[in-house]
């Protein structure tokens, strides 16, 4: 049996299961990619201009960022740098124990959680401490605060949450950053564009906070794999020591620079996502399905007793949704990407037609 990397290709259909930007990317990005010739493709990338432009775009010092091969690589690098038995110097200086008192480092996550957090911990032999969500997937602040120990090395704060789409109050993030002052607090803002606010401006107040961003969603660069992490030089130092020298390819670097230079595309897609969510809410209301209003570019829908039939039926009709039924936190749910209005309208019509038959 052959093991294939990545997510299985479901064939032709609407790809509304991976939160990609199904509207594509900016034409400037396409032009930048098409401009490459043989010699340019045979050259190692130079990150200097990309880092300077990204820093200016984010409004931070260039020494506070590292570019990553998608934010997934960033999560893995953080796991490698921070979950080894001996704590990095940056955390020791923040009062962390040199080694975990229990002998095993821990990550702390609120459920439901983005799977790569868990994979990164398991790959380093760390313990995963999971905290159940509050009602309607509210961030379980009190439970998270109680779960912080001297063994805690990384606290993941996914804002807004994937897969629920629920936001986390800024005050809660402040409390976590203070209470886990000896640990790395990774604030994953992959979907911050849709939320309309972020924690980046406050992050500099905390020497233990790292912000993660991606260009996969609002900018449509999922296929290019471009992410960025923002933190103090001290927090980034152990990450720099374990990251590949040329982790982004030369085409991805050019694509990112072109994307940053065309903010109009992002503005268009955010408007499409906002309108699309309203279409899904209305369809679910008519079909009698429970859902959670989202601050991301997707909606989590509860199929109840019909979940399996709805998921399989949508996929069979060529509208791909993300099956979340294997997650104990979302046992009857599926997730639907809400981006381009034309695509969402077809998805909503398909969902309503299926519900009418079941």
Description:
- The protein has 358 residues and is of the alpha/beta class.
- The chain folds into 2 domains: 14-24 and 264-357, Aspartate Aminotransferase, domain 1; 27-260, 3-Layer(aba) Sandwich (Aspartate Aminotransferase, domain 2).
- The protein contains 15 helices and 13 strands.
- It has helices at 27-34, 38-41, 48-58, 70-82, 89-92, 115-123, 141-147, 170-179, 192-195, 200-203, 233-242, 250-260, 263-287, 307-316, 341-357; strands spanning 14-15, 65-68, 106-110, 127-131, 152-158, 184-188, 209-214, 227-230, 290-292, 298-302, 319-320, 322-323, 333-337.
- It has a 7-stranded mixed beta sheet with strand order 2-8-7-6-5-3-4, with helices on both faces. The protein has a 4-stranded antiparallel beta sheet with strand order 9-10-13-12, with helices on one face. The chain has a two-stranded parallel ribbon with strand order 1-11.
- Helix 4 (70-82) packs parallel to helix 6.
- It is globular and about 60 Å long.
- The model has no long low-confidence stretch (mean pLDDT 96).
CATH topology label of the largest domain = Aspartate Aminotransferase, domain 2
What is the CATH superfamily of the largest domain? Type I PLP-dependent aspartate aminotransferase-like (Major domain)
How helix-rich are the residues, as a percent range?
Answer: 40-55%
The total strand number stands at: 13
| Shape type | globular
Helix-strand pattern = EHHHEHHEHEHEHEHHEEHHHEEHEEEH
How would you sum up the major sheet? 7 strands, mixed
Q: Provide a count of the helices.
A: 15
Sheet with most strands: strand arrangement: 2-8-7-6-5-3-4
| Secondary-structure class | alpha/beta
Question: How far apart, in Å, are the first and last alpha carbons?
Answer: 37 Å
Mean pLDDT: 96
- Beta-sheet strand percentage? 15-25%
Number of domains: 2
What is the alpha-carbon Rg in Å?
A: 21 Å
Low-confidence stretches: none
CATH 2nd-level architecture of the largest domain: 3-Layer(aba) Sandwich
CATH C-level name of the largest domain = Alpha Beta
């Amino acid at each position: 049996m052959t093991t294939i990397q990545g997510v299985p290709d479901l064939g032709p259909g609407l790809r509304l299961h991976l939160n990609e930007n199904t509207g594509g990317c900016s034409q400037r990005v396409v032009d930048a990619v098409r401009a490459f010739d043989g010699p340019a493709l045979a050259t190692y990338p130079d990150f200097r201009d990309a880092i300077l432009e990204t820093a200016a775009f984010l409004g931070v010092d260039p020494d506070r960022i590292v570019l990553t091969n998608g934010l997934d690589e960033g999560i893995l690098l953080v796991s490698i740098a921070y979950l080894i038995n001996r704590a990095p110097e940056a955390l020791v200086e923040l009062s962390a124990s040199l080694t975990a008192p229990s002998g095993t480092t821990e990550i702390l996550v609120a459920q439901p959680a983005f799977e790569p957090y868990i994979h990164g911990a398991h790959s380093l032999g760390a313990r995963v401490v999971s905290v159940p969500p509050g009602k309607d997937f509210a961030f379980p602040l009190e439970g998270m605060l109680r779960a912080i120990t001297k063994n805690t090395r990384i606290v993941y704060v996914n804002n807004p949450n994937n897969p629920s789409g629920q936001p986390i109050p800024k005050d809660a993030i402040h409390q976590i950053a203070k209470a886990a002052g000896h640990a790395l607090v990774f604030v994953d803002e992959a979907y911050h564009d849709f939320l309309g606010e972020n924690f980046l401006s406050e992050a500099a107040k905390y020497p233990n906070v790292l912000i993660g961003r991606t260009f996969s969603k609002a900018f449509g660069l999922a296929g290019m794999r471009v992410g960025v992490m923002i933190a103090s030089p001290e927090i980034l130092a152990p990450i720099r020591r374990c990251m590949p020298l040329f982790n982004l390819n030369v085409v991805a670097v050019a694509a990112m620079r072109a994307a940053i230079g065309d903010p109009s595309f992002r503005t268009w897609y955010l408007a499409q996502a906002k309108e699309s969510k309203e279409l899904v809410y209305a369809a679910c209301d008519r079909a009698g399905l429970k859902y959670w209003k989202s601050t991301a570019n997707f909606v989590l829908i509860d199929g109840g007793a019909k979940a399996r039939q709805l998921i399989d039926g949508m996929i069979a009709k060529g509208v791909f949704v993300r099956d979340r039924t294997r997650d104990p936190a979302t046992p009857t749910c599926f997730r639907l990407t809400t981006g381009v209005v034309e695509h969402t309208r077809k998805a909503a019509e398909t969902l309503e037609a299926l519900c009418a038959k079941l």
